[in-house]
Amino acid sequence: NSCVTVLLLTGFLATILMRVLKNDFVKYAHDEETAEDQEETGWKYIHGDVFRFPKYKSLLAASLGSGTQLFILTVFIFLLALVGVFYPYNRGALFTALVVIYALTSGIAGYTSASFYCQLEGTNWVRNLVLTGFLFCGPLFLTFCFLNTVAITYHATAALPFGTIVVILLIWTLVTSPLLVLGGIAGKNSKAEFQAPCRTTKYPREIPPLPWYRSTLPQMAMAGFLPFSAIYIELYYIFASVWGHRIYTIYSILFMVFIILIIVTAFITVALTYFQLAAEDHEWWWRSFICGGSTGLFIYGYCLYYYYARSDMSGFMQTSFFFGYMACICYGFFLMLGTVGFR
């Protein structure tokens, strides 16, 4: 049902966008034929500002690198699940696969981040690599340290043994970091150059006053709601499996939902970016990334609903584990879907 609903809404949005684009092309073609010296309007008016490099380009490049790595990681996990690698009653296999694949794909993050950063004429690529390495792992490590300390205090079996922690740190030091650096060096030395189709003006144009619904927060709400509607039904079963006692084995359906999530996220971000440019707002770089990743915020909002309305969890330890690790997961979704929306 959710798939059908999302496909209908996506088709409706595609129809609207195509009609608007067609009208714009007809309008601009007519203007060129009748009055070439007439003042330009809409997205054509800001063609000299669209490819102006954004602020905090190192952070944007690091976010894209981490998001690309998490996307590849998710695809590999789905492929392993579809071929039957994960046994429903052995959750340790999934955890091991996440750690190993994340370490092996760190070179992708380094390459993507460094190459994009150098395309934006960045110079301090070493700092960019350090930021890429800690952008996702840093918050995850701090959250893990706090929650593992809580588990040890409560003498819970959820606490990881010291030996396992040492192994994870060795993997991060001996595998993740070297591959990240090698990928960064390859990305820095790549021949890819940023080639804008038009010349960027020396001074940016002033963005005209926009209505409230074209600001960042309303755009994030619109961009996150439609993709979230594609997955919210499956979220209950996933949560019940991870945080409850249910067994989830229908990985093929989950993979289809993931594909729809990616398609809808990309489409809604393209549409919102076009309408933003049509309103003569040329600061689209960060807006497209944030709008694409806003679904992660909706998922975390669903966590609040699930905890208070659907789960039987209580106490400080269960509450901290649920909201702590779900914050990390939703942050990963934000980076991954933000990358999809930007690309």
From TrEMBL:
Regions crossing the membrane: 59-87, 94-117, 129-147, 159-181, 220-239, 251-272, 284-308, 320-342
Entry membrane topology: Multi-pass membrane protein
Record keyword Transmembrane present: yes
Protein origin, superkingdom: Eukaryota
Signal peptide (residue range): 1-22
Keyword Transferase appears in the UniProt entry: no
GO aspect biological process, one term: protein localization to membrane
Localization per record: Endosome membrane; Golgi apparatus membrane
Any one Gene Ontology cellular component term annotated for this protein: Golgi membrane
Swiss-Prot/TrEMBL keywords: Endosome, Golgi apparatus, Membrane, Signal, Transmembrane, Transmembrane helix
Family assignment from sequence similarity: Belongs to the nonaspanin (TM9SF) (TC 9.A.2) family.
PANTHER family: TRANSMEMBRANE 9 SUPERFAMILY MEMBER 2, TRANSMEMBRANE 9 SUPERFAMILY PROTEIN
Identification of the protein by name: Transmembrane 9 superfamily member
Source organism: Opuntia streptacantha
Biological classification of the source: Eukaryota, Viridiplantae, Streptophyta, Embryophyta, Tracheophyta
